[in-house]
Amino acid sequence: MADIILGLESSCDDTSAAVIRDGYxxxxxxxxxxxxxxxxxxxxxxxxxxxxxxxxxxxxxxIARAGITPDDITAIAFTRGPGLxxxxxxxxxxxxxxxxxxxxxxxxxxxxxGHILANFIREYGxxxxxxxxxxxxxxxxxxxxQIVRVDGPLEYEILGQTIDDAVGEAFDKCAKMMGLGYxxxxxxxxxxxxxxxxxxxxxxxHIPGFDYSFSGIKTSLLxxxxxxxxxxxxxxxxxxxxxxxxxxxxxxxxxxxxLIKAAKHTGIRHIAIGGGVSANSGLRTRIVExxxxxxxxxxxxxxxxxxxxxxxxxxxxxxxxKNGERTSLDVAPVSRLAEF
Length: 340
Description:
globular
């Protein structure tokens, strides 16, 4: 009998529900929250209120698009954390209530694990290759920057991670300094395509091992922009494409230097990326180029699976369910999770 998993994602400002059958995606519905653009970032209280409004229609639509009934569901997978506690509470509470109403088991999922397993989402009619174990996953988002060794669907080892800020935050801070709006990462990426990545240089950190640091390069950009505007008030407008291209190149160089180092150290040649920053066109191009040069087999998630979505939660939950894992109804969401 097929396993039909309903996945729920509410870790930040996107409310999403998805249905998979034995790993194949039947539906993936997402409601984004536009209200945060006016504030230049996510406001937790507004996010949790919007989740309360969105979650019932989103889940109903996901079930309808999948062509199933609620009774067909085998298990309910939900994001327990990490994320915004208020947002997580909405998703967790809804999952628990639905579990009671339908008498279906719960399966908790680590949000980061969902990003790592996004490359395992299968769609009917598509022949997307899936990573072979073991593989390295460069997990990059607004809150995380990690190199993870993946030995199986549920077997992970963090080889390196940021010691301060995440790369996604660096992209957003760059956009904020330049007045480009929110979310900043996609805007920087778009402008970078028209700029010269070699025009400006930014200081890069020297961190031992496989760990990352992005606080220093943000400070380097801040001082650079401040000093140049003091000389020419129109500097930003005249050079915004080149600034974005140069800053983006510096961030990608930092990411790739450590990933190359980790690949050499482990001897692993299967390389994947995941998380919101994995949508960045510069990073996607660079990792493919490095793969060709170094004999890697590279795996890139589809753009629709790079940002927060319930499809990745559903597929991760499916692996947990097949492993015999179940979550009790007294579970509580957590803003931080120490381990996968």
